Amino acid sequence: MQQQHDVLNKKLKQAIDARMVVEDARKHQVEVLSQFAAKLSLSCKGLDMELDNRLAKYRSALKKGVDFNLLAPFIDDVLGLLKHQEAKQIALQRDLNKSVLDAGKQLQKVKGLPDDARRSLRNLLDRELDNIQSNHDFVPILSKLVVIYHQALQAKLAESDTGEALIKPELASELMTLANGLLFEDESAEQIKNIRNQITRNDSVDELLDAAIGIITIISQNISKERQSAQSFLISLNQTIEDLHHSIVSTTKHSESLSAEYDSLNKSIERKIKNLNQQTQQATSISALKELVEEELKSLSDDLITKEKLEHAERENLLASFKDINNRVSSLESKLTTYKQRLNEQRFKSLLDGLTKLPNRAAFDERFEHEFQLFLSQGSELTLVVIDVDHFKSINDRYGHSAGDKTLQVIAKALQKSVRKSDFIARYGGEEFVLLMTGMPLEKAVAPLEKLRKTIQSIPFKFKDTQVEITISIGATQLKKGDTQLIAFDRADEALYTAKNEGRNRVCISK
Ligand SMILES: Nc1nc2c(ncn2[C@@H]2O[C@H](COP(=O)(O)OP(=O)(O)OP(=O)(O)O)[C@@H](O)[C@H]2O)c(=O)[nH]1
Q1: pLDDT tier at 48 (50, 70, 90 boundaries)?
Q2: Backbone angles phi, psi at 204, to 5 degrees
Q3: Among the four residues 46, 206, 234, 416, which has the most C-beta atoms within 10 Å?
Q4: What's the 394 CA to ligand 1 centre distance in angstroms?
Q5: What is the DSSP letter of 502?
């Protein structure tokens, strides 16, 4: 019995010990789990304030012990909030996805993006973005996107650098056209020449700006000179008119005083004749009459001599006045003629290109407007041609600016000589010329234009003992219904562009 009791006791003890081990293990597990839950809850911190509060309460409840009854309401609350949080995260993920997609598409539009960056971007947008599971997956995608953004930015910066280099030749050529159009004399001509050299030698926008300021200064100096000369002409005109006025007034005054003297002389002569008449009738003897008549006749003759002298003086005076007036008017006339001549010369010069002596762009615009009006009103056939010297920059670069200038002069002369009298050729600017072929349909213009091209090609240019072949590209179009001058010009320009693209030294037309 005792033995049975001991066995039972031992078993019970063993069971209690085993239970204790299990209890301890469980307690340890619960502790680990509760610590894990607390840590996990901490990792959610910052997502949502409400959730943070609940989790803090949950953690402090956990610290007091793992009493499920106590923890249950917190767990329910936290679960509810986590569900809400999940929905928020999904919406956020959708927004993030859209933003990344938009940003990526914008990036794809950037010019000059390196090929590998463009490929990586395409892959990112087409594949990687579709495999996103959580917001964390965005992290590597966003960092890739930042790298591509960086590359795009560099491409943009490089583009703006070359952008400046591209703008410069245009600026230089505009300035060159302006400088070429200025026809000044003496010192100003020399200054303009220096500026033109500066423009072709330029390697910075600053230098172009200096050239532009130089041109403006010369123009303003010349305007002021012109104004001074006009002013001095007006002053001298005014002086001459004033002198004329004085001269006429003094002649009139002189005539008035003479006329008073005439009056009194006439009256005295009249009186003497009357007197003579009376005394003749009253005379009683021939000898008395003779004496009387002799006396009166002498007095009359004196009066007549005085009158004649007066008349002579007046005639002389008038003649002198007329001579004086005549001289002044002639001098004024000659001044006026000189001034008119200068104005005409100025106008002529302002329509002439200084370097080639061909009509300039302003003259072309005027003529094109005139021909365009004829085309509109009479439907006349008009072919517009744009001519550009090929690789002209390399002539300047290789043989110098003066050689470039000379080339333009020779080409201009050859062009002028080769076109018909009724055609109008002008230097449009830089190495570009324009030609208006009146009464000429496009199909018929091709042959003479081909001839023109060959003429230029056959000119034996020689620089630094080297024979150089210089060619031109030609673009032509015919004015057609609905055209504006600009549309037609753009069409001719397009044809020229094609001629350049197809290898230069050719004639291309655009219908
Ligand atoms: N010597 C000289 N050069 C000029 C004059 N006007 C413009 N230029 C130069 O003409 C050159 C024109 O060069 P681009 O527009 O690059 O053309 P291009 O070298 O002729 O080449 P393509 O037209 O493409 O065949 C520029 O270098 C200008 O500086 C000028 O009056 N005299």
Answers
A1: confident
A2: -150, 155
A3: 416
A4: 8
A5: T
Beta bridge partners of residue 424, listed in sequence order: 436
**d(Cα 506, Cα 497) in Å, to the nearest integer?**
11
Residue 392 Cα to ligand 1 middle (Å) = 5
Closest by Cα among 480, 486, 370 to 436: 370
Q: How far is CA 272 from the centre of its chain?
A: 92
Q: Indicate the angle between helix axes 2-43 and 49-63, nearest 10 degrees.
A: 160
Is residue 461 a contact partner of residue 468, using CB atoms and an 8 Å limit? Answer: yes
Paired strand residues for 426? 434
Rounded distance between C-alpha atoms, residue 276 and residue 456, angstroms: 103
Say if ligand 1 is within 6 A of residue 405 CB: yes
What average pLDDT does this structure show over 368-374?
A: 94
Cα distance between residue 478 and residue 203, in whole Å? 39
Q: What count of Cα atoms within 13 Å lies in the side-chain half-sphere of residue 213?
A: 6
Amino acid at 451: K
Mean pLDDT of 469-483: 97
Count of other CB atoms within 10 angstroms of residue 470: 20
Structure-token pair, residue 319: 């003649």
- State the chain's mean pLDDT as an integer: 82
CA 309, CA 507: separation in Å to the nearest integer? Answer: 88
* Cβ-contact 195, 179 below 8 angstroms: yes
Most ligand 1 atoms within 8 A of CB, residue of 200, 395, 493 to mutate: 200
Atom 16, ligand 1: residue with shortest CA distance: 393
- 396 compared with 102, residue with greater pLDDT: 396
**pLDDT tens-digit readout, 396-440:** 999 998 899 999 999 999 999 999 999 999 999 889 999 999 999
Could you tell me if the CB of 201 is within 6 A of ligand 1? Answer: no
- The structure tokens listed for 260 are 């008073």
Residue-level pLDDT at 434: 98
